[in-house]
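Hey, can you fold this one?
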Amino acid sequence: MHNQIQISTTDGTFLAYVARPSVTPAPVIVVIHEVFGVNADMRQSCDDLAAQGYMAICPDLFWRTEPDVDLTDQTEAERAKGLALYIAFDLDAGVADIAATVEAARAMPDSTGKVGLVGYCLGGLMTYLTTARVGADVAVAYYPGNADRHLEEAGRIASPLIVHLAEEDEYIPKAAQQQIVAALKDRPQVQVYGYPGCKHAFARHRGISYDAAAAALANGRTDAFLAQHLKR
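Sure. Predicted structure:
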């Protein structure tokens, strides 16, 4: 059973894709999209989580500027559009929208009340910021672009967090990766993993930089981490 739900905020309402597990009540994962919107890749990520027994919800964070964005990384035009959406994106409003989604998820009748965050690229940055400012039962950030520009927030992170970094990331240079690692090294509940030889978005299904082995390793770590904190 797949559908959409509406999330209400003080600024208005927006849609979120939902993939439901076969058994409820279930823990909820809020999946936070990349610059390409709630696309086939994000829907597949939600469906995969539902198959593992979670309710997965992917909110449309671009609703304020352009609802229903659904792009791929396959063409220059789509990549340029994603970059433009990213530049125009209000990070603070995005955190508020994710917090509203988490609140709605906790209150859903088929939810256990436990909620995790999993975000990719822009969504990885949003996962990091939301974990620092709002918190979650567990969080996973894949290649969080520009996280090095917000390292003053690292000290606020109290939730369990994994950060996956591509060591050859063209958007997160090695110096920025080192700064991220250094800022998080004293947070005992945070784990940072590097993936040698990988470029940005190595876990994006069918993406131009997809690396099957690295994606399987990162996703396996993610799956175990989510289960540890949401299913026990």
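Strands lie at 2-9, 12-19, 26-32, 55-59, 111-120, 138-142, 161-166, 190-195. Let me know if you want another pass with a different chain boundary.
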